[in-house]
Specification:
By secondary structure, this protein is an alpha+beta fold. It has 7 helices and 7 strands. It has one domain (13-230). Strands 1, 2, 3, 4, 5, 6 and 7 form a 7-stranded antiparallel sheet that branches. The longest helix is centred in the middle third of the chain and has 12 residues, at 98-109.
């Protein structure tokens, strides 16, 4: 009988929390690494497709997005990489709800919890429409993620900057770990070649921080720093991770 193994879709790598669901995750993205965390404005037009622009500190939402959005009120979003504890896989999570953002920030600023990559967050949802409610609960203990998780995040080679660059069909999965506009191609063969040719890079404090959350391969750190230096956007000062 002809029964191919079902193939996963790109959307399956995005975390969607449906009514009466609970998901346990570690937040692996960090605002120190724009490949793993982006913050921006999101508008939804009549074609039911999102249009996004990077958030810039102190600047209002672009008028062009307000004109596109069907309600005239684009939302501020966070998008970051996570490790899904129960599915045991890297995923991308987009958050616009203040009822999720606020408790995440509260845990991150609490010395007893700190860096969200160090503990599991259970995020749940009940209700729908205007009756939707979210819960965010941190699970003890608080300690750095195992090496197996940080390695898996590196291997995923997720680069969220493609969401904003207008190229690559907005697909951040399998990116090469540096600004996609500099990449000649976005395929697994090139990724493997990069790994095989890479050499150890001496790590300073910044590199250790990036490595601890498994955001990009070490051989891409130099390129990431260059990309950060050229970036015109900024992340809000109250984002602590």
């Amino acid at each position: 009988m002809f029964e191919p193994i079902p193939e996963p879709s790109v959307s399956s790598d995005y975390l969607r929390i449906k009514e009466n669901e609970k998901h346990r995750i570690r937040i692996m993205g960090t605002s120190k690494d724009p490949a793993s965390f982006i913050q921006g404005w999101e508008a939804w037009g009549n074609d039911n497709k999102p249009v996004r622009a990077q958030y810039e500190l102190g600047k209002p939402c672009p008028q062009s997005l307000k004109e596109i959005d069907r309600e005239g009120k684009p939302k501020l979003f966070w998008m970051f990489t996570v490790w899904h504890v129960d599915l045991e896989k890297p995923m991308v999570f987009e958050v616009t709800q203040s009822t999720i953002k606020t408790p995440i920030l509260a845990y991150a600023k609490n010395p007893a919890w700190g860096d969200p990559s160090n503990y599991v967050l259970e995020i749940g949802r009940t209700g729908s429409g205007l009756e939707t409610e979210y819960t965010v609960i941190a699970e003890p203990p608080s300690k750095p993620p195992p090496k197996a998780i940080t390695d898996a995040m590196k291997d995923a080679m997720i680069d969220l900057r493609v969401i904003l660059d207008g190229e690559h069909d907005g697909n951040p999965f399998g990116a090469l770990g540096f600004m996609p506009a500099t990449a000649p191609a976005n395929d697994q063969a090139n990724i493997q070649q990069l790994r095989e040719q890479s050499k150890p890079i001496p790590m300073g404090e910044d590199e250790e921080s990036l490595n601890s959350v498994g955001s990009v391969a070490l051989d891409a750190i130099t390129n990431l720093k260059a990309a950060q230096a050229k970036s015109t956007g900024a992340v809000q000062d109250d984002i602590p991770y």
